């Protein structure tokens, strides 16, 4: 039985409280993303921050991944032939950018409507992305392995982030690269990501984030280490509240990204200094 069916209590024989408790999928998060799913590709809708952030993170990923795999970042398709998993792909904003860089993208999400919208959009854009409803744990059970695993803006939406990160790590082949993006658990993130973004500026629907679910860089890096990965780079991400423009920053107090690799292959990167 897949982890998702267990979480939804849809497994044959009726719902199992144990299966729901063991799952790392939060039914309230699933319901919230289901409600918003139709708006994924509206650049002025509730997901505008992901649209605003996307060009920046795609540039960062292009540079980091091309270098890690000894490709030329200025090549039009520097990720050609790399097997890339986008965990929690949502409507496919990031998956499509990675496919446009040549990666062989597999996007998974626990929300069926997200996956349907992502698949339709990729087809209409002429991008060959494979989407599937499921979890990292489901892929582990199938012994899938990837050159690149992205887990971006997802761990703050699951009950046990460290568990999801360890599962994602184990999906990485030797020499592969994983990138995590999330929000730190600090006083600044409470002020900016909750009070500012949800209540004052109303950039996001109230309740989008719970501060207690935010994850510190130490917690992310500890989970990646537990999965056998070595951290190679980290950078903060900031947004200008007036212009709504995103940029990289040294400070990790609010949004940040961590790059790690499973040492031993061509992507055994040199320690990076970021941003
Ligand atoms: C804030 S969105 C980020 C979407 C995408 N990663 C991006 O950055 O554009 C979080 C996504 O994680 C998904 N999600 C929540 N829990 C998940 C889980 N346990 N496994 C996989 N995806 C999950 C949600 O359905 C939602 O699409």
Would you tell me which CATH topology applies?
Rossmann fold
CATH superfamily: Vaccinia Virus protein VP39
Number of domains: 1
List low-pLDDT spans.
9-15, 267-275
Q: How many β-strand stretches?
A: 8
Q: What is the mean predicted local confidence, pLDDT?
A: 90
Helix/strand/pairing category? alpha/beta
Beta-strand percentage?
15-25%
Task: Report the CATH architecture.
Answer: 3-Layer(aba) Sandwich
Order of helices and strands: HHHHEHEHEHEHEHHEEE
Tally of DSSP helical segments:
10
Amount of helix:
25-40%
Termini separation comes to 42 Å
Structure description:
α4 runs parallel beside α5 and α8 crosses α10. The protein has ten helices and eight strands. By secondary structure, the protein is α/β, with parallel strands linked by helices. 38% of the residues lie in helices and 20% in strands. The C terminus is likely disordered. The protein binds S-adenosylmethionine. S-adenosylmethionine binds next to α3 and α5.
Short synopsis of the structure:
The chain is of the alpha/beta class and 275 residues long. The chain has helices spanning 3-8, 17-22, 27-36, 48-68, 93-100, 112-125, 136-141, 161-170, 187-200, 217-226; strands spanning 83-87, 104-109, 130-133, 146-152, 172-183, 230-239, 246-249, 255-261. Helix 4 runs parallel beside helix 5 and helix 8 packs across helix 10.
């Amino acid at each position: 039985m897949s982890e998702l069916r267990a979480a939804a209590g849809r497994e044959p024989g009726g719902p199992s409280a144990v299966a729901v408790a063991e799952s790392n999928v939060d039914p309230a998060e699933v319901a919230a993303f289901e409600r918003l799913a139709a708006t994924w590709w509206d650049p002025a809708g509730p997901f505008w921050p992901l649209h605003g952030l996307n060009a920046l993170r795609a540039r960062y990923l292009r540079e980091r991944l091309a270098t890690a795999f000894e490709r030329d970042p200025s090549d039009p398709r520097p990720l050609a032939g790399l097997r890339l998993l986008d965990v929690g792909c949502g409507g496919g904003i990031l998956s499509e950018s990675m496919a446009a860089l040549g990666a062989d993208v597999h996007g998974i999400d626990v929300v069926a409507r997200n996956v349907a919208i992502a698949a339709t959009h990729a087809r209409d854009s002429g991008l060959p992305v494979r989407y599937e409803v499921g979890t990292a744990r489901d892929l582990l059970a199938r012994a899938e392995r990837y050159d690149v695993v992205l887990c971006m803006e997802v761990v703050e939406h699951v009950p046990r982030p460290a568990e999801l990160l360890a599962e994602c790590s184990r999906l990485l082949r030797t020499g592969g690269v994983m990138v995590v993006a999330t929000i730190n658990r600090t006083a600044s993130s409470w002020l900016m990501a909750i009070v500012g973004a949800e209540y004052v500026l109303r950039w996001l629907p109230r309740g989008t984030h719970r501060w207690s679910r935010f994850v510190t860089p130490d917690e992310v890096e500890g989970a990646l280490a537990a999965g056998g990965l070595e951290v190679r780079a980290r950078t903060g991400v900031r947004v200008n509240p007036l212009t709504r423009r995103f940029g990289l920053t040294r400070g990790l107090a609010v949004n940040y990204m961590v790059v790690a690799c499973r040492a031993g292959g061509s992507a055994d990167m040199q320690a990076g200094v970021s941003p």
